[in-house]
Structures are given as C-alpha cells and as structure tokens.
UniProtKB/TrEMBL annotation:
UniProt-listed SMART domains: ANK
PROSITE patterns reported for this sequence: ANK_REP_REGION, ANK_REPEAT
Pfam families listed in its UniProt record: Ank_2
Phylogenetic classification of the source organism: Eukaryota, Viridiplantae, Streptophyta, Embryophyta, Tracheophyta
InterPro entries: Ankyrin_rpt, Ankyrin_rpt-contain_sf
Keywords: ANK repeat, Repeat
Protein known as: Uncharacterized protein
The organism's place on the tree of life at top rank: Eukaryota
ANK repeats: 71-93, 250-272
Gene3D superfamilies noted in UniProt: Ankyrin repeat-containing domain
Amino acid sequence: MNLKVYKAAKLGDFDSLEAIISGNGEDLFHQTTPKENNIIHVAAQYKQVNFIRQILQCSSGPSLLWQGNYRGDTPLHLAAKAGSWEAVQLFISLARSLHWVVENGQVDACKELLRKPNLHKDTVLHYALRGGHHSVAKLLIEEDPQLCNITNVADESPLYLAAHRGLPLVTELILGVSPLPFSHKGPKGMTALHATIYRPETNKKRPEVIREADDIGWTPLHYYALFGDVNEVQALLKYDTFVAYDLDKDGQSSLHIAAFRGHVNVIDELLRSCPDTCDIMTTKGQTALHVAIIGGQVNVVKYTLGTPNLEDLINEQDTDGNTALHLAALHKQYKIIYILARDKRVDRLATNKDHLTALDIFGLMRRKHSLKNDRLK
C-alpha cells in the first residue's frame, strides 16, 4: 500500500487521501498491505470512524467492506477486534441499507456481513469476546442473535468464550436474548460451564449443560469436586442431583475426585444430597475410600470411619481383592495403616487375589526395602 495512503487511513485524514488519489489515480484506493488489509481495514484497526464514513460514501467504498485479508478478516472483524463500537455500528448501518438479490431470492446483507467467517471460522462476535469488548458484543448479539450459535474451528462457541474470558454480563446476555438452543461448546468437548464461570441463575436457563462431559468424561461437577468448591457443588446438585452419578472414562464419580483430593466438605455435601453415591465403584472396583487412601488423604479415612452409613466401605475389596488396609500397605500410607489397624471393624485377615493379607504385603515391602539398603552398603 502506498505510504501516504496508509498514513491517511491510519490518521483518518480523508482530505489527504482525496488529494493523493486525485493526483495518482483510483488504483491507490484498492491497494492493500502485506497482510492484504485494504484501506478500510487500516482505518477500522485504528478506529477512524469519520474516515470510514467518508470512504463508504464513495462509489467503490461499500465493496471493500466484504473484502477479507490474509486471514479472511473483513474490516468489521478488525473493528470488533479493536473494540470500536462506533465503527461496528457504522458498518451495520451501511449493510442494513443494502439489498442483494441472488438466484434464490433476496439476501440480508447485514446478516451476511455479521456472520461472514474468517479462515478460522471466527465471526466478528468471536473477536469482540476475545478482546473483552462488552459493548461491541452486546451490539452484535442484539443485531443478530444467531451469531451466538456459530462455533469456530477450535469448537469455541460465543457462550464458551464469554465464560472463559470472565464476561458474566455477556454470558447473561447470550442466555437471555432468546429461548433458542444456542451452542455452549468449547474445545476438547468442554462447555461454557467447564470454563468456570458457573452461576446458578444462569443455569436456570441452560440446565442441560450441567451434565455435559468433556473428552475425559468430566462434567463441571467433577471439576468443582477437584477444586473443593462446595458452594458450586451445592448449586449444581440443586438443579440436577443425577449429575452426582455421572462417571468419567475411568469410572470415577465426583465423589471419587473429592476423596482423592481430600475435600471432606464436598464429600459430605454429595452424600447428603445423594447418599447412595458411596456405592459407586471405578473400573478397578475402587470405592471413594480406596481412592482417598491412594491419594494419602488421612482426613477422608477418618471421616469414613466416623460415618455410620459408610461402614460397608471399610472392608470393601476392589477387582484385585484389595481392601482399604491392603491399599494403605501397597501405597506405604503408614499413618492410614495405623488408623485402620486400630479400628476393630477392619478385617486384618482379609486376603486379596494373591492370597495376601495387608500384613503380608507390609512384610514383603519391608523386606524389599531392607534388601535394597543392603545392596547400597
């Protein structure tokens, strides 16, 4: 692009542009930068709204509005990216005034422009949300609510992006503009809820996302159990208790996750709302107590021993026949071994599939440790 033309567009100097073109010809009007940005792209990038308005009044101006750069971005994409509400509104107003006629009838030029994707299938709304431009996003959504249902190559929906970027007002706006089933998809099978912006009042409108799992089978409840966020666990269970029974690809429920991380408050809430979740076993036949022992969570072991309706877990065996005491020995959880061994309800003589008691395992491991030390001497 001619240097003087570029500077005129960047600075919004339309008078200079007219002088340049009158002296050098109309061809300058259609030049582009190395990124294939035309003169309106450049002006939109620098929020030169008056300059854009004057360009669009020229005979060749409107045609530049649909022109994509090397990424397929239109000038509207760049205006949304820059957060220029005035430029976006100007482009929308112009597009509204246009009427295209094709073989199948009339086309809505405004919606055609708004929904035009770039090479990554990003619309202008994706760009506005990535930049955190609430006012631009609001303008776009109100103009064309269907933008909310367009996902890009990365499987990012506008609702997911709004949640992921921490834009609760836009999240509420997307959910509130229409009863239409807008996409809440995110990358790797994640949803807007997985993006950690969960709000109870939001999911009154979109409760179906509560039970959607990502690529490893984790629902939002699995993640809240992981982080020990008992308030969000309570809120999710308020809307759908069945989510507590959802399992990931290893057969783990949110109770298993909470147990492994030692979040007793979450365990207590899950069992209060869904007491029979304590019966859920993983693909290895492990209970929440087994998982807690593998994670070295002494507090969960104490909680289990002190809760009457969890007594069945104390001597439960996994698919290898290991009880809680076996696993404590196998994973060298000495504090847990001590706690379990002192409890009269624990079956110290239970054997696993190798016909070993927990004491046998403990003895074998001690002998291995002793032999290792002897070799090092």
